[in-house]
């Protein structure tokens, strides 16, 4: 679908997200000729700068994030010609006159306001856009996380932004939903007849969803210490992945049809009580250790760290969904920093065969692995006969590597999501009721931790997290996938 002419306004246009992700993604789509010839990108910052000074910043801070193989001098020049700069203070309505001067006053022109700013600025930005007459029926607003710290603040953000934009104009972005493998999970489930009869409690033993990072907090301690792993990763990325795995088939791939089914999953998550919460949630914090053979400090020893911080850098949760399809199937979610590896994957483990006719049957169950990063692909573990005399079975892996199978250039998550924003497609973006339902489920965990006033369980950097996380899944006679892999 062709994209209509637009003005894209980047609040936080000189910030890290814009330089590392958004501008390189827009360049990539310009290179692919997805952007209309007259489309413009207006980047906003607080400092007074000429356009030439801003282009120099883009050359220094953004261009290095474009893969060298994709750099084309003529395309880069064309892309830079789209860029404008204006000095705007989000809290000063008078300064929005500079933005108005930078925008075209063309009837029906799509104006996309991308708020790559702290959420504390969302309300004042939207109010000043409205007062300045910049919001039109063709306008859209993109909200970056964090979308609240709890249910009350999430509702407040929804209400504040909703005063000036209709729900159909609001794009709450979660970049994990733009990943190729997540799209392929939808295709796998709803484009094939093979898995749907098995996609239920009768045949699935458990589901594991992991987002692990080798990195620590880096220079983001101030932000991370007020957020933590639960708010930063589980409330949004992990729950959205859970929804796609568990939702019922929507009536179509339209935005509200898909989001209606995701909302049903969130509302069907079994709520925690103080007793079940203590048994089914693990909260950890990394201490000193080694990652890839390099010594790294503990969380409380990071630069500018709070030596008494109780912020979690790891969380593991056993979730259950109260529906006919999923009753009794545990969903294990975990995320952490300074882990043994950097990966994001979904593991759907099937039940063992009810009766084995083979004397040397390996008891490894079939499982489907959807790898999101670092390499995107699908892996199906099956049992096959080992070559040689006798009937000995061993696990084998059927693998689909998307890069090997499909030779066409690949879009990263922000490229895809930005295209959807420009086209007005809402399917991959959270609706307000989805956001609030996720917070409703997560908030009791936060409240329990606040009341406990206990330190997180320590784990060594470079490991797979606290021993308590292995015990969490071990109580059900199961193992995390990397613990269950046979040694080579």
TrEMBL record:
Substrate binds at residues 175, 179, 213, 232, 337. One of its GO terms (molecular function) is NADP binding. The active site is at residue 237. It holds the Pfam family G6PD_N. Residues 9-184 form the Glucose-6-phosphate dehydrogenase NAD-binding domain. NADP(+) binds at residues 46, 145. Residues 186-481 form the Glucose-6-phosphate dehydrogenase C-terminal domain. Keywords: Carbohydrate metabolism, Glucose metabolism, NADP, Oxidoreductase. Gene3D superfamilies: Dihydrodipicolinate Reductase, domain 2, NAD(P)-binding Rossmann-like Domain. Belongs to the glucose-6-phosphate dehydrogenase family. Catalyzes the oxidation of glucose 6-phosphate to 6-phosphogluconolactone. This is Glucose-6-phosphate 1-dehydrogenase. The lineage of its organism: Bacteria, Pseudomonadati, Pseudomonadota, Betaproteobacteria, Burkholderiales.
